[in-house]
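go over both lines:
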Amino acid sequence: MKRAFGIVLCLASLLTPASGSSGGLAAETAGEEGPGLTSADLVRVLQDNAVTRILQDATARYRPRSAAFVDVSVVSVHDGMIREHQTVVVENGLFTAVGSVRDVRIPRGALRINGQGHFLVPGLTDMHVHSMVSNSQKLLNLANGVTTVREMDGFPYLLRERRAIRENRLLGPTMYVAGTILAAMPMEDYARVVTSPEEARAAVTEQKRDGYDFIKVHNILPVELYRAVFEEARRQSIEVVGHIPHDVRLEEAIRQGQRTLEHVKGYYDDRTLKMTTEDYVGLTKDAQVWNCPTLYTRRSGIARSELEQLIATSDEMRYVPAADKLRWLEEAKDVPDATTETIYERSAAVFRELLAIRARFLTGTDSGGGYRNHVPGYALQHELETMESLGMPAIDVLRSSTIEAAAAMHRVREFGSIDVGMRADCVLASKNPLETVANLRQKKGVMVRGIWMPPEAISEMLSSVARVYADDDRLVGTDLPTALRSAVRDAKRLEGGGFAALVGREATLVTLGDLLIDAKMPRDAVDVLRIAATAFPESAPANAALGAAWLARRDAREASAAVERSLAIDPGNDRARRLLESAPLRAPPSFDPVGVYAFEVRMLVSGVFKVIPLRLEVTGTSGRYSGRMLAEAVPEFALEGMTAVGNRFWVTAVRGQNRVKFRLVVSGSRVTGSWSAEFGAGNVAGTRSGGPPGTAGIS
């Protein structure tokens, strides 16, 4: 999973030097480096606005209604049979009647959909997605018959999006959402770091309370923390899914009851790419566990020549921004990526072996998170065809994407088949998908929660998306202020449409706000960033950007309030820290930084967490501080910088190639806070004693 939004690309900048990233009013007023934005970022904003308008219009146009598929061949994923000359009635978003055309009565006023010569298939499920790039993902998924998705890294805004979709205030596949990834190492902003069994249990409790559907574990999670996650998950009656962590054996994962296993990790070690020495076939046989192999991720490593051919000839590439295709080509290699190929070979071999014992599989793509060469929606079709090419019969591929997906999520009474009482999700295909799943490409319409989208609606939607991505120059025009004002109007219009229109658009709004600051349009910047901070109150970046916008308007009081909100959410937000250190906001420390700080941190050492005592000795006066940091049995840290503002004390320490940032909150003799580095993160707790440092050892 990779976040793609906001990448600065080598396009000709429309920003003049006077309003560029380093010379804008924000940098002058706030004393921080500008955001470094270019016209490529403006293109992203305008594209996202345009796609969101398409989604908003489609949401208003296509609504649930009573309908009947008349004289259709129904594909039963239960027994692999096709029942011909059926009528399927849909009311209130559910299938309410399924039977012979002679026996089923069609309700008065219901939309009649001619099914003669066509095949009705349950809607498909992508069991591994990340909605991080664009609202076009929802449209592309629906266009390809993907009516259900499982989000594999949850955030509060996704819970709101899940609710809006289920209430049909937002058009998109029905969502099931895993909690924010639990890991013992930082993953930028993708994961919640846990460093003790107590923290792991607390994270599970909070995610269950907040309403997430599952707990997700990741690569770096020591066995003791992994077990703590499961202990609490059992108490909370919530399933655990995700990667098998590096230090956890497959036998342990199955014994603990991990519900789904992603990417075949654990069957091979993704650090060494070597196969496990465990009897993985015997362990998996008859186990209540589902594998989601995500074979499609192989495409991220294809050679440049193959990618060039795809871009030139594949219809799906019309729905990818030109800047993304350019980046993909720049990153592609002359030959297929060896690591990606090895992972595919390992995964395919395991897939075939597990097929022989009738193990349970799911269909997932890992799309939507910024991987190269991936196109949401189309990705699942490729995954289905890949599974069939490796020996899985077409009916079993369909089951993996329908009733097996429902079973893995304990939702067999909600979706996955065309039966009375089930959610009305289905695909009308013109060819028999039991002959080959490639026949699912021949769609005559898609229904999601009783919302019917005929082929002409899907074609119109796709054409609209393709037009947005076809011509960057037309989208931006030649007048930067005009383009920016248009983007502001879009943001305000979407806000007026209610929160459902804003879901997933935090990065877009923050980027637009920064562009406005750089263009010396601070009033508009405040308006846009207030929308962002209101829609995403849990977002530290949105509140920090709002602080910068208020500073650009020379309102230190409002700026200070926004920055404080950002730091309350994330004490490690560097932008908020820089703003608080800047001249307009900087407050003298409420404590004397000179003294000795003794605290403990938990760090992962050779796969095991150890409590490491640290001692920080600070000398100096009038903001010119120096000192040293000592750790037990390891070389001394070099101090790169120290800043004290209010009751906060920021310290950056360096040892070797590692830079560790400490964010300390000082209250009398008590010290709390957090630390982070590339190799780990965690909390800080300890004491401070005033006065010049003594010579005592580490306490």
Q: What stands out?
A: DSSP finds 22 helices and 28 strands in the chain. The longest strand covers residues 608-621. The chain has a mean pLDDT of 89. The longest helix spans residues 39-61.
